[in-house]
Amino acid sequence: MRTPITAATLPAPAATPPPSIPATPVTYGSVASIARFSVAQYERMVDEGIIDDTDRVELLEGYVVLKLPGNPEHDGAVQGVADAFYARRPAGWCYRIPSALRLSDSEPQPDFAVVRGPAAAYRQRHPEPADVGLLVEVSNTSLVRDTQDKARMYGPAGVPADWVVDVTNRLVIVYRQPAAGGYAARDQYGPADAVPFELDGRRVADIPAAELLG
Questions:
Q1: Which of 6, 96, 106, 112 is nearest to 50 (CA)?
Q2: Which domains does the chain have, with CATH numbers?
Q3: Where is the sequence biased in composition, kind Low complexity (predicted)?
Q4: Which of 4, 54, 102, 171 has a CA 20 to 30 Å removed from the CA of 185?
Q5: What is residue 214's DSSP assignment?
Q6: CA 29/CA 14 separation, integer angstroms
Q7: pLDDT digits (tens, 9 = 90+) for 145-174
């Protein structure tokens, strides 16, 4: 029987982390980090089965972090987001739900991603920021992580847009214009609004926020 992942079962992290990794432990939302690794080390642990699908973790800024568990409200909202986008899928793009995104020091797993197609292009690698049109995070218990920690990673990496579907407060928050500290622009949409769906600066559709919020 496979031993579940814990701090004790993880191999020792690199002696000298990349300069971008903070020198002191950090907390993402209410969940503390376990250990610190490079993306290559993290992917090697996945390849060797040290981390597998039963381990709800992701790599955020060099830290292996426990993912917050999805409850029925969250999982239902993710499906609603997928339905809204699948009804408006543009040619040359594909959708991923959910899957890893490879950054320089992180490998988060956004709830939904719009990436350049075809889907077969990602059978041997994870998408990177240059492949991404936009990401969507669905939040009901992970608002701090999604609006602060992940936006802080996605913007400087060059992800064009980061949507946070805040099901608790019934809002769709759109971060755009990537900048050094995150994003330069933040737009907010309520249930009566329509959210502009743009890829490469082109308006694809206006998605009613009510469809995304369920």
A1: 6
A2: 7-66 (no CATH), 72-213 (3.90.1570.10)
A3: 1-13
A4: 102
A5: -
A6: 25
A7: 999 999 999 999 999 999 999 999 999 999
Q: Are 95 and 109 in contact (CB under 8 A)?
A: no
CB-based contacts of 107: which residues, under 8 Å, 6+ apart? 39, 42, 43, 58, 59, 100, 101, 126
Q: Which amino acid is at 63?
A: Y
Nearest one of 22, 29, 60, 19 to 42, comparing CA atoms:
60
Q: Annotate 128-146 with b (16+ C-beta within 10 A) or e (fewer).
A: bbebbbbbbbbbbbbbebb
| Rounded Cα–Cα distance for residues 66 and 55 (Å) | 8
Residue labelled with tokens 């990673």: 153
**Its pTM surpasses 0.85:** no
Confidence of residue 18 (pLDDT cuts 50, 70, 90): very low
Mean pLDDT of 188-199: 98
**Dihedral class, residue 82 (left if φ above 0, else alpha if ψ from -120 to 50, else beta):** alpha
Where would I find the H helices in 59-101? Answer: 72-86
